[in-house]
Amino acid sequence: MAHTIGSKKKLINRIRRIRGQVDAIEKAVAAERECSEVLHTIVACRGAMNGLMAELLEGHVRFHVLDPARKSSAEQLEGAQDLIDVIKTYLK
User: Fold this and answer.
1) How far is Cα 72 from Cα 45, in angstroms, rounded to an integer?
2) What is the pTM of this model?
């Protein structure tokens, strides 16, 4: 994942926030919080995971599907952007 090196700190911070959200789910269940509160916490965690997934998938497409060492055609760039947009929409 060489393309993640530039954003490593940002990604690790996102992962730490997700870990905090997962911990909050566990605490809410242990404290016998209302179902709706637990569900909202799970939804927030899922959204954060989907955001992380979208970011990593975009990097993967841009650096492994398209070859950054070669100039991509307009059609390839458009296709890659279309794929990224679909993935982001799906993960919302």
Assistant:
1) 36
2) 0.80
Residue 90 CB-half CA count within 13 A: 10
Total domain count for the chain?
1
pLDDT, one tens digit per residue, over 57-80 is 988 898 888 887 888 889 999 999
- pLDDT at position 50 is 94
End-to-end alpha carbon distance in the chain:
24
Looking up residue 35, the CATH number of its domain turns out to be: 1.20.58.1000
Q: How far apart are CA 77 and CA 48, in angstroms?
A: 27
Work out the mean pLDDT of the chain and round it to a whole number: 91
Q: Which domain holds residue 26?
A: 2-91
Measured between alpha carbons, how far is residue 75 from residues 51, 68, 72, 82 in Å?
26, 15, 8, 10
